[in-house]
Design a protein that fits this description.
Chain lengths: 105, 175
């Protein structure tokens, strides 16, 4: 009975993990995900400005935000983009936050 | 039904708190040709006066360069009416204050409100003093709005900045 409960709990966690998650370069952890990765780069200098924008997903039911490169660049007044990084965090697939970081001048 | 809602809300809050606790999760850094760039992710400052209407808020993020004497505070000011702010005043140490010019980046709409995005460049030494105070500093705007952390929250917030400032100092090229 105990084994059955454990198996059921693992199965439910695995199933729910896709509720509010998005893929990362190394996959999604069913319990916890915190992955930074590169998105794109240009030949411009790194510069001294950083802009960010984010979007969140709760329980796979509500997903809001503007995590576009345009929003992140506008937030810091960046005209020349050097490169773009992204970060995805997720807990149990129930709460996911996606952030974009734009560097430039 | 209500109990389930409470459990779900508590779980979401727990998830949020778990994501937001460690200082290392609250900033990003980048090596540049002239030093290291630190970016403290956006933080929300709570209202501290009665002049602030619901839905009005201030979010700020900080960009520090290890080899520069100035730092940038970028603010998103949400107001119910479209206002352009020219200056911001930081009040700290029970009486000291400094007024700085705001450079407007853009004004945009957000649902039924307006968001103004501004850059404020100030000396790193001043920012260090503000965040080293035992009592939280306050931000005043020309429309009378005032924002400040509560004492309990301030200890956590000042620790975040002071850790990054220390890192920035340790990574100075001539150190």
């Amino acid at each position: 009975m105990k084994k059955l409960l454990i198996i059921a709990a693992v199965a439910v966690t695995a199933l729910l993990s896709s509720c509010a998650s998005t893929g990362t370069v190394c996959g999604v952890g069913s319990i916890y995900t915190d992955v930074k990765s590169g998105m794109s780069a240009t030949s411009n200098n790194v510069g001294s400005k950083v802009g960010t924008a984010s979007a969140t997903n709760v329980l796979g039911i509500i997903a809001t935000g503007d995590a576009s490169i345009n929003a992140a660049a506008s937030n810091a007044g960046i005209k020349k983009i050097s490169h773009v990084d992204q970060q995805q965090k997720s807990i149990l697939g129930l709460f996911t936050k996606y952030e974009v970081f734009v560097y430039g001048e | 039904m209500l109990r389930n809602l409470i459990y779900i809300t508590a779980l979401i809050m727990l998830c949020n708190a778990a994501i937001a606790q460690k200082v290392s999760k609250l900033y990003v850094s980048k090596a540049t040709e002239t030093g290291i760039l630190y970016f403290i992710k956006p933080r929300e400052m709570p209202p501290a006066g009665k002049d602030i209407k619901p839905k009005e808020s201030v979010l700020y993020d900080v960009t520090i360069h290890s080899d520069k004497d100035t730092a940038d505070i970028l603010m998103s000011i949400t107001t119910l009416t479209p206002i352009v702010f020219d200056t911001v005043t930081f009040a700290y140490n029970d009486g000291e204050s400094a007024t700085h010019t705001l450079q407007k980046i853009y004004i945009d709409t957000k649902e039924r409100a307006f968001v103004g995005r501004y850059r404020c460049k100030l000396p790193k030494s001043e920012l260090n003093t503000m965040f080293s105070c035992k009592r939280p500093f306050a931000i005043h705007f020309a429309n009378g709005a005032k924002y400040a952390y509560k004492q309990r929250q301030w200890e956590k917030e000042s620790k975040i900045y002071n850790t990054i400032a220390k890192l920035s100092e340790l990574n100075q090229a001539n150190k």
